[in-house]
């Protein structure tokens, strides 16, 4: 009889978890269905250039869609799919954790409480795992954008100095950098489409900075807006900004190189000093033990 109780508890807890996951998934789908649609735009924030204020729920959903787009998931249903995957992973991990806990044969004083705790920990891990993957992919994407910015600005400077307008230069950058830096080239393609659709240049470049969340592109957008407002030559501003950007990159590399000896000293002490002490003290310790 005692062997039947854990199996019955595991069965009913499995049903409970699956039912709860289905209920939460249904509630999430109904909530997301009530959110305002973006009109079929490929970019999650492209509609902001032509629309007014939105609700707080719509802004939150656009922020989540932007995060998923930066991680490489730019499908219109990416937010809904992401939460469905989180709930499914939590349910699968919870049921698996509970099953392993029951089948492990551990005899705690309160087996049901122990199995439930194991299921909760496993479910939390499953719910957190998709967010971890998205954060890692997003960090790699932002790093690629940061690396590609100097090349894009240099190429844009060449195009502007050759006599092209800023809009044509951005279009040329999007075309030429697609093979080398496809992530930044895609953002410039969105920029050129927004300008061709009639968006203001200030809004379009600010949208470029907001969609990438990059400080260098935010400064670049401010530079373009100020150059257009003050009437200063864009080529001269781009030349100064590109040179300053590369100087800052060199300083960052120099800072990392300066702290490298300090970081290496700890590893050197950990892997060099103990073996050296063993080599020096081992003969003496051996002789002392022989004399004793």
UniProtKB/TrEMBL annotation:
One Pfam match: T2SSF
Keyword Membrane: yes
Coiled-coil positions: none
Membrane-crossing residue ranges in chain numbering: 12-32, 77-100, 112-134, 266-286
Membrane topology: Multi-pass membrane protein
PANTHER family: INTEGRAL MEMBRANE PROTEIN-RELATED (PTHR35007), PILUS ASSEMBLE PROTEIN (PTHR35007:SF2)
The name this protein goes by in its record: Type II secretion system F family protein
Native species: Falsigemmobacter intermedius
């Amino acid at each position: 009889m005692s062997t039947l109780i854990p199996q019955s508890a595991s069965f009913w807890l499995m049903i409970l978890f699956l039912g709860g996951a289905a209920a939460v998934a249904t509630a999430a789908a109904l909530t997301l269905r009530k959110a305002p649609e973006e009109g079929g735009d490929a970019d999650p924030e492209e509609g902001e250039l032509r629309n007014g204020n939105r609700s707080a729920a719509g802004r939150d959903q656009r922020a989540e869609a932007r995060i998923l787009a930066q991680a490489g998931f730019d499908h219109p249903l990416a937010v809904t799919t992401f939460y469905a995957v989180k709930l499914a992973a939590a349910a699968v991990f919870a049921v698996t954790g509970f099953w392993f806990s029951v089948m492990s044969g551990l005899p705690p004083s309160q087996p049901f409480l122990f199995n439930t705790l194991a299921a909760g920990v496993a479910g939390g891990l499953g719910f957190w795992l998709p967010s971890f993957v998205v954060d890692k992919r997003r960090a790699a994407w932002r790093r690629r954008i940061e690396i590609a910015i100097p090349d894009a600005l240099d190429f844009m400077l060449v195009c502007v100095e050759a006599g092209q307008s800023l809009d044509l230069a951005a279009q040329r950058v999007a075309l030429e950098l697609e093979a080398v830096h496809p992530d930044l080239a895609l953002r410039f393609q969105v920029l050129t489409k927004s300008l061709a659709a009639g968006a203001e240049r200030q809004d379009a470049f600010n949208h470029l900075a907001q969609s990438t969340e990059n400080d260098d592109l935010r400064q670049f957008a401010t530079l373009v807006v100020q150059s257009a407002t003050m009437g200063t030559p864009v080529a001269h501003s781009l030349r100064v900004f590109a040179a300053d950007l590369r100087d800052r990159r060199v300083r960052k590399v120099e800072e990392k190189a300066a702290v490298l000896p300090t970081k290496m000293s700890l590893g050197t002490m950990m892997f060099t000093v103990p073996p050296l002490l063993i080599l020096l003290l081992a003969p003496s310790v051996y002789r002392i033990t022989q004399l004793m």
